[in-house]
Automatic annotation (TrEMBL), chain A:
GO terms for biological process: methylation. One of its GO terms (cellular component) is mitochondrion. The keyword Cell cycle does not apply. Residues 94-193 form the Methyltransferase type domain. SUPFAM superfamilies: S-adenosyl-L-methionine-dependent methyltransferases (SSF53335). PANTHER family: METHYLTRANSFERASE, UBIQUINONE BIOSYNTHESIS O-METHYLTRANSFERASE, MITOCHONDRIAL. This is Methyltransferase type 11 domain-containing protein. Coiled coil: none annotated. It holds the Pfam family Methyltransf_11. InterPro entries: Methyltransf_11, SAM-dependent_MTases_sf, UbiG_MeTrfase. Signal peptide: none annotated. The keyword Nucleotide-binding does not apply.
UniProtKB/TrEMBL annotation, chain B:
Pfam families: FAD_binding_3 (PF01494). GO terms for molecular function: 2-methoxy-6-polyprenolphenol 4-hydroxylase activity; 4-hydroxy-3-all-trans-polyprenylbenzoate oxygenase activity; FAD binding; oxidoreductase activity, acting on paired donors, with incorporation or reduction of molecular oxygen, reduced flavin or flavoprotein as one donor, and incorporation of one atom of oxygen. It comes from Albula glossodonta (roundjaw bonefish). This is Ubiquinone biosynthesis monooxygenase COQ6, mitochondrial. The gene is COQ6. PROSITE patterns: UBIH. It is found in: Mitochondrion inner membrane; Golgi apparatus; Cell projection.
Length: 263, 486
């Protein structure tokens, strides 16, 4: 929660003002990097398991039936449909924390130009290997092993959309994340976040049930302390996007992005 | 089940456990992956490249060609590479030949809708087809009969179309889609190589199709439409429930004694098997006579006059009636006519036959078959490759067209969701939907066949009374017609 009126008045101008009062002061390292080494290590160990649909990442595979239509439909609302069969053609998307490319590939198949980044090099290798067998898809999808900060220094205002799916709960520093997104997004660009909510129920189901009892997700994947509530996510997201110049005014124009939280 | 996961998704604050159920579903499905597939190593294909298709359809019969058309015309699949492989020659028919083909199919409204949606129905109508409004089915061992007709006799119940006409019409429509669908005729497949169910080291993740010409093609999804002895199904090792009926069907074109409106399909159940007369035109009808192998061979050897006599006698004679059954039957009918005055119909007799058409009579064996799985990782079966039925209900082709409609819908949605077309998740939806529809139909057809294969008195009595009762209850008949029309 937090001051609701903040959204109206404190609209970000090109120099970003982050409102620390509304950010929960939980366990956040003071680093200026989004990379958390302990998190990276978790995924390193599982780097070759990404594409086993009944393996450790099965949950992410099945989530595609939710998150791909979500991203697709919202982008279509903003950009309008392009070619038949390639609804997202000529839309540039950045997939932050792409892992093995589970979400990157479907977006590429829909015609978008997708760049997937992940700090874990082995995951990127897995992703590149997987896409190498499909020459058509290889044209649409690229991968890079780097962090968002490293990329934001090079690609200013390069992307129509940034997707951070099941990522923000693994990051060290959300403020930096929001800043970098702001740098890489075009004016009028969209930011998509999917993550777990921070509630008692999400602890019961997302940690206890999913990790310990049913073993749907490998144990230790998530830390409940790092979950964020929808309002927190929206707060960060609002700081991350920027309006198209023509629309900028004193009153906030809610940017054309949805932030989705589940659980 | 898929719907269970969707139901759970609507619960708010449900955490992530809902995904668990899809995982279980997926796990069950993925246990059907190929354990020892001998997947080719990448290094083996040095050339750049074995061509990679999105979908290869193996088998260019009615159902395979319809599938190719349907996929080629789907907007969500625009830009995908689709290939149809057919072992035979291209069937071109600019004008209908004078003589009628002996193999015909009854096309129900659901199939007509599909064909119309893919633009082939217009070609069929321009070539040749015969709508009919009524169907009479009756017993040889009693007077029991059942008639089906639409309430408004102006509506067609179904259409009789020659199989050659259907294939030619679909081929013509396919010719208008050269950019979307490639077709290779006179192409035989000699080997299929299956991929592992998920990425393993350097193994090729696609299905490999080796042709007799030595060429190898790769595809993300293989659709098997190669008939009841499907090679795709066999090589995939999909277990099939099947049995022979110890019956063969004799087909011929019949010349009627005099021209008639001929908008009724007739079928009589003899103890040896059903004999059916399906309208082709005002003066011609198609014969489908299912009987024992030996009797079928005898029929083929008869001269024309004796053959015609045999047909007429099969339809008209009452030799198989027994007094007991007749009395019981007429008593029951009287009782019914009190309860439901409109529920009894007078038995009509089909037109008499005077001769047979110029093309020779043919026979083919009959059997039942059902693949226990319609899908595997990157494979789907449609048409007779998945299910084979007795012709007595005229449903074989219609079940196949139903498969085409369903699989197209599933693949279209998958493409719009950016999914890999060969993924099990949506193929399972196709299998579930079609098995739910096909299995009851197949069970009913098999049951009918067995019920009417005997002239043992109790069974005859049972089916006589049952048939009369069904005939007297319009809602039941409407349900039957609706189910058979989908």
């Amino acid at each position: 929660e937090g001051g609701g009126s903040r959204i109206e008045c404190d609209y970000p101008t090109p120099s970003v003002q982050l409102d620390y009062e509304t950010c929960p002061q939980t366990i956040r390292s003071a680093s200026q990097s989004t990379l958390d080494p302990s998190e990276a290590k978790k995924f390193q160990l599982l780097a070759n398991k990404w594409w086993d649909e009944r393996g450790e990442f099965a949950a992410l595979h099945s989530m595609n039936s939710l998150r791909v239509p979500f991203i697709r439909d919202n982008l279509l609302n903003v950009h309008g449909g392009r070619q038949l069969g390639k609804p997202l053609s000529s839309i540039r998307i950045l997939d932050v924390g792409c892992g093995g490319g589970l979400l990157t590939e479907p977006l590429g198949r829909l015609g978008a130009d997708v760049l997937g980044i992940d700090p874990v090099e082995d995951s990127i290798r897995t992703a590149e290997l997987h896409v190498s067998f499909d020459p058509v898809l290889q044209e649409q999808v690229r991968y890079r092993a780097c962090t968002l900060e490293e990329l934001s220094e090079e690609e200013a205002e390069g992307f129509d959309a940034v997707v951070a799916s099941e990522v923000v709960e693994h990051l060290a520093d959300l403020d930096t994340f929001a800043l970098c997104c702001h740098q890489v997004l075009k004016p009028g660009g969209s930011l998509f976040i999917t993550t777990l909510n921070k509630t008692n129920l999400s602890y019961a189901l997302g940690i206890v049930a999913a990790e310990r009892l049913l073993r749907i997700v490998p144990s230790g994947t998530h830390e409940w302390e790092k979950f964020i509530s929808p309002s927190t996510a929206i707060n960060y997201a609002l700081h991350a996007v920027k309006p198209r110049e023509a629309l900028q005014s004193d009153h906030a124009q809610p940017p054309p992005q949805p932030s989705q939280t589940e659980g | 089940m898929h719907c269970l996961t969707k139901a759970l998704l609507t619960l708010n604050g449900g955490g992530r456990c809902y995904t668990g159920l899809t995982c279980l579903n997926g796990a069950r499905a993925l246990s059907r992956g190929f354990c020892n597939s001998g997947a080719a190593e990448r290094g083996e294909s040095n050339k750049n490249e074995n061509e990679l298709y999105d979908i290869i359809i193996s088998g260019g019969g009615m159902v395979g060609t319809a599938m190719a058309c349907s996929l080629g015309m789907d907007p969500n699949l625009a830009g995908k590479k689709i290939l149809l492989l057919e072992a035979g020659n291209k069937k071109i028919m600019d004008k209908v030949p004078e003589g009628y083909g002996t193999r015909v199919s009854s096309i129900n409204p659901g199939s007509a809708n599909l064909l119309s949606g893919i633009g082939a129905w217009d070609h069929i109508v321009n070539l040749r087809c015969k709508p009919y409004q009524r169907m009479q089915v009756w017993d040889a061992c009693s007077d029991a009969l059942i008639t089906f007709d639409k309430e408004n006799l102006e509506d067609e119940m179904a259409y009789i179309v020659e199989n050659d006409v259907i294939v030619a019409a679909l081929t013509k429509q396919l010719d208008t889609l050269p950019d979307q669908v490639k077709v290779q005729y006179r192409t035989k497949v000699v080997k299929y190589t299956w991929p592992k169910s998920y990425q393993v080291a350097d193994s090729i993740p696609w299905v490999q199709v080796k042709l007799a010409s030595g060429e190898t093609l790769q595809t993300k999804l293989l659709i098997g439409a190669d008939g009841p002895n499907s090679m795709v199904r066999k090589e995939a090792g999909i277990p099939t429930v099947k049995w022979n009926y110890d019956q063969s069907a004799v087909v011929a074109v019949l010349k009627l004694s005099e021209p008639t409106e001929n908008n009724v399909a007739w079928q009589r159940f003899l103890p040896t098997g059903p004999i059916a007369m399906l309208p082709l035109s005002d003066t011609l009808s198609s014969l489908v006579w299912s009987t024992s192998h030996r009797h079928a061979e005898e029929l083929l050897e008869l001269d024309e006059e004796s053959f015609v006599d045999a047909i007429n006698s099969a339809f008209w004679s009452n030799d198989n009636h027994s007094e007991l059954i007749e009395t019981a039957g007429s008593l029951f009918r009287t009782a019914l006519s009190f309860l439901m005055p409109s529920g009894t119909s007078a038995r009509q007799l089909p037109p008499s036959v005077a001769g047979i058409g110029p093309k020779s009579r043919v026979m083919f064996p009959l059997g039942m078959g059902h693949a226990s799985e319609y899908i595997r990782h990157r494979v789907a079966l449609i048409g007779d490759a998945a299910h084979r039925v007795h012709p007595l209900a005229g449903q074989g082709a219609n079940l196949g067209f139903g498969d085409v409609a369903c699989l197209t819908k599933v693949l279209s949605q998958a493409a719009f969701n950016g999914q890999d077309l060969g993924a099990m998740q949506h193929l399972l939806e196709y299998e579930t939907e079609r098995q739910r529809h096909n299995l009851p139909m197949m069970a009913a057809i098999d049951l009918m066949k067995r019920l009417y294969s005997t002239n043992v008195a109790p069974v005859v009595l049972l089916r006589t009374l049952g048939l009369q009762a069904t005939n007297a209850v319009p809602p039941v008949k409407e349900q039957i017609m609706a189910f058979a029309s989908k």
